[in-house]
Amino acid sequence: MTxxxxxxxxxxRGLTFWGQWLCAMTLVNLLLIVLVHWRVGDLxxxxxxxxxxxxxxxxxxxxxxxxxxxxxxxxxxxxxLLAGWLILLGLLMSxxxxxxxxxxxxxxxxxxxxxxxxxxxAASFLPLHLxxxxxxxxICHERRAVIIGTCPxxxxxxxxxxxxxxxxxxxxxxxxxxxxxxxxxxxxxxxxDIREILTRLQARRVYIVLPMAEAATIEALxxxxxxxxxxxxxxxxxxxxxxLNHSISEIERMPAIxxxxxxxxSHPGSLFCKDLFERSVAAVxxxxxxxxxxxxxxxxxxxxxGPVLFKQNRHGCDGEVIRVWKFRSMRQHDDQxxxxxxxxxxxxxPLGRFLRRSSIDELPQLFNVLFGHMALVGPRxxxxxxxxxxxxxxxxxxARHRLKPGITGLAQITGHRGETETLxxxxxxxxxxxxxxxQWSLWLDIKILxxxxxxxxxxxxx
Length: 462
Description:
Elements: H1 2-39, H2 45-65, H3 74-99, H4 107-142, E1 145-148, H5 152-161, E2 169-174, E3 187-190, H6 194-201, E4 205-208, H7 215-224, E5 231-234, E6 247-251, E7 254-258, H8 263-266, H9 268-288, H10 290-303, E8 309-315, E9 321-327, H11 350-358, H12 365-370, E10 375-377, H13 384-390, E11 406-408, H14 410-413, H15 423-439, H16 442-451
Parallel strand pairs: 1-2, 1-4, 2-3, 4-5, 10-11
Antiparallel strand pairs: 6-7, 8-9
Helix pairs in contact: 1-2, 1-4, 2-3, 3-4
């Protein structure tokens, strides 16, 4: 039943996306036809090509940005719709620039279409979003559920699913080693009485949340509930394990739980889009910032002896050793231990202190991104000697290297940057890196890039 339920939920999510996307693209193209007929009088071939590219380009863009995901509220949904539309317009403008066809289009038509296109999509999004939320709430009201198990994972599940205005959860069903039930839901009884409990409460769904050691109990429950009209959902209690980009799928019609998988193997298409997007941004940034890069290089050369760039071996994706570039901010010194920079570090030059405080010293890493060794967003690369030191001391430390290291990342915008003089500080930074890998999306990358400038003058940078 679990796989059947998962398939049904996936089908509903697909119908939600396709329905809203089809409505939005229909309105956008109808708007373009009306504007072209108003301004030009007919529909030239270049506008028909634009309509086709809009439809084809919106599919991957809106999917990556998760425009129509039912979890999002109204404001977040509209903001994602705006982000997806702006990215799509940027791609269309890039194609027009590269093919030198921008002169074929009426600027008045394109400007009005770009603005009104979002408005008509938003106008269709509002009622459809409300309908989906109401339908989902109706289904949840009709499908009351209980949770078998009182472990910490079951408590966490109850907190996430329980809503006073949507009473879909009725309580916990205890097992032989049950602890006290939390106050959020009552303890309904013991697992031996599960059939009577479900019949009495008219519950339609059962969440089995038991540790792996209870495999025999899980199997017995499944067999016991097989002839009852209830959905049985098994949520393994894996709370003590560090999961990396975990997912549930099928291999040759056999259920498979992926506990540890890299983005390269699980989302190759999405990772390609991330790489293409970041290399393009890096190339544009290098061109726009070239006067600043040149000025900083000259200033470093004039204020202290030594090379302009500091190059250091660091671990990249899958542990590959890469050479990371930075503007040199310290005096030349022989540091065999590769010490982290500390507050009031006497190795830092006066100019270097400003470069480090403003993070300008990191700008040469744009070339690392352009060459494909780094990403704009990802776990920060640490020196090889630091990785050797922390491996074994910090839980799941090297798991952060399942993705290209980044110039900025989730740890940096959440305050976990600067010196990590204690293992606890490094553990918290690694936890944020793993959160990034597990939650990765192109939209998350964009949010991190937008928030990064506001963290550049953090007190932890030195």
